[in-house]
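Margin note: ligand = protoporphyrin IX containing FE.
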Amino acid sequence: MTLDVDPFEAFEEANAQGVRDPYPEWASMREQSPVHEIDLREEYGLGEDVEFELPRAYVVLSYDGVTQVLRDPESFSSSYYADTMGVVMGHSILEMDEPEHHHYRGLIQQAFTRKALDRWQDELVRPMVESIVSEIADRGQGDLVRELTFPFPVRVIAGMLGLPASDLAQFHRWAVELISVGFDFEVGMAASQKLRDYFASVLAPRRVEPQDDLISVLAHASLDGRVLDDEQIFAFLRLLLPAGAETTYRSSSNLLFGLLTNPPQLAALQADRSLLPQAIEEGIRWEPPLTGIARWSTRDVSVDGVPIAAGSVVNVCMGAANRDPKRWERPDAFDIFRPPQQHVSFALGPHTCLGMHLARMETTVAMETILDRLPKLRLDPTADDVHIRGRAFRSPPSLPVVC
Ligand code: HEM
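Resulting structure:
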C-alpha cells in the first residue's frame, strides 16, 4: 500500500500553524482582563463564507478563572465536545455531564488501578524505554523525540490494550487521522469507522474469554448493576489514544527540552534524583502539552468578575493559567526548584485527567533511564534552532542530542 500523505506531518503542520510562542500574547491579554470575548471565526481560521451562525465565545486566562470554570460543571458543560471530537470518537466520557459521567467514570476507573499501573510499569514501560535508550547510548547520539518520546506512549497504550505489535503502525496512523478531523473531516470520519471495526474484532473474543488486558477489564466491568455496552467501549478506546499518547509524548519532550536548555538544572537532577517528581510537575506546568480545553456555559455567569452569557463557548486556557503571575513568581521561567503548587495541566474537578498517574509514571521511567544510561547527555551542539512550537498542542519537533 502506498501512503500519499503522512498523517503525522499533516497533523503537526495544521496544529503548529507556524506558532512558536503564544505566551506573550496570552500574558498581555490576561493583564487587560482575566476573560476575553473572542471571535470563533478568527480563532478557527474560518472564512467569511461560513454559512452557519457561530455562538458567542470567550477565553479564560487567569488561574482563578480557569479553576472556577473547571470546578463548576453545572454552569460549564462538557457537552461542548459532542459536536466536535464526539463526531469521531462517539459518546465518550469526555463529553458527559453529571450524573452520567460519574457512573461511566466509575466503570472505566476499574481498569486504572494501582496494581495495573505497577504491572504496566514493570512489563511494558521499563523494558521498552530501556531498549530505546540503550540504542541511543551505544550510538552516542540520537533524537529523543523521534526515537523515544514520540513512539513509546503509543506502544504502551497498545500493550495495555493487548494489541499485537504487528498492528501498531496502522493503529497509530488511524489515531492521528482521527484527531485530524478539525482540518480534514473525511479522513477523520473514515479513521473513526476503521478504528470501530478494528476494536469490534478485538472486543468480541474478549467478551467471551477475558484476557489479561484493559479491553477485557472494560468488557467485564460492572458497577451498581450497570455494564459498558460495545459502543461505550469503542468511544472510550477511540479517546484513549489521543488523550494518552499525544499528551504524554509532548509533556516528556517538553520536560527534556527544559532540562537540556538549562544544563545546570539537568546537572542538579543528575546529582539528586529526589528532585525528579518536582521537575516533572514543573515541566507540565511550564509547557503543558495541551494548552486549552472547552466547555458550554449553561447559564449567565460571572467568571473571575467578568460576565459570560448562557450558551457561549468557553475556552479554558490552562497554558495561560499556569503562568499567572498572581500565583507564580517569574512564571515564564522553567525552574525545577520552585516550591510545588497545584497547576491545571491535568484539569480539575470531575473531568480531571484519568491517566495522570500513568503519564507521570511513564515520564518518571523515561527520565530515570535517561539519567542512568546517558550521564553526559546534552543538546547536539551542531543542531540548529531546537524549539517548542504549537498553540493547542505544544512540543519540540525534535531533540537532537549527544551522549
Ligand atoms: C501529561 C499527560 C497528560 C495531560 C497533560 C492530560 C490532560 C488532560 C486534561 C486537561 C483532561 C481534561 C479534558 C477536559 O475535561 O476537557 C484530560 C482528561 C482525560 N485524560 Fe488526560 N492527560 C494526559 C495523559 C493521559 C493519559 C496517559 C491517559 C490515559 C492513557 C489520559 C486519559 C484521559 C481521559 C480518559 C480523560 C477524560 C476524563 C474525563 O472526562 O473524566 N490522559 N487529560
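The CA atoms of residues 163 and 192 lie 18 Å apart.
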